[in-house]
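Ticket #4471: structure output looks truncated?

Reporter: J.K.
Steps to reproduce: submitted the chain below (171 residues) through the standard prediction queue, then opened the result file.
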Amino acid sequence: MSYAIISLGGKQYRVSEGQRLLVDRLTTEDGKTFTPDVLLVGGDGAPALAPKDVTVTVKVLGQQRGPKIRIGKYKKRTGYKRHTGFRSALTQIEIESIGGAKKVAAKPKAEAAATPEAEAEVVEAVVEAEATPKAAAKPKAAPKPRAAAKPKEEPAAEPDVAAETVKEEES
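Returned output as attached by the reporter:
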């Protein structure tokens, strides 16, 4: 395999073995390896679109900042000037290998017989671990109680006009 197209952070990169490149910031720690999504592999014969059996191994070399970009705004005859800057957060990676199936450490045959049960336990533990922090990290807030209904005020009684006129006449 001489080249592959991989997807990292929503962008696609054409890579070959031994190549170093800068990509948008990844959360992987320095020195760790990972396998990104492989979209296409080519170079030896016909290109293979989205191969299932081919993996690309990538090693994270370090985190760094991109060059400063200056952004200026200006409006003539108004005295309006604004300047801002931006530096992108980048990760330097190196393509270690483009090849066949994932490389798995050889296990003794005695352990291989017990593998399905052990794998099932590991998968259950991983699923529980992934589900638990999300639920424990941010529990839903209880709904706020509704405000009590205000009692309706009785309409004010109309003043007795006849009684007032009588009082005024007496005085």
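Triage note (M.O.): checked the attachment and the full token line is present. Residues 103-108 have pLDDT under 50 and may be disordered.
Status: closed, working as intended.
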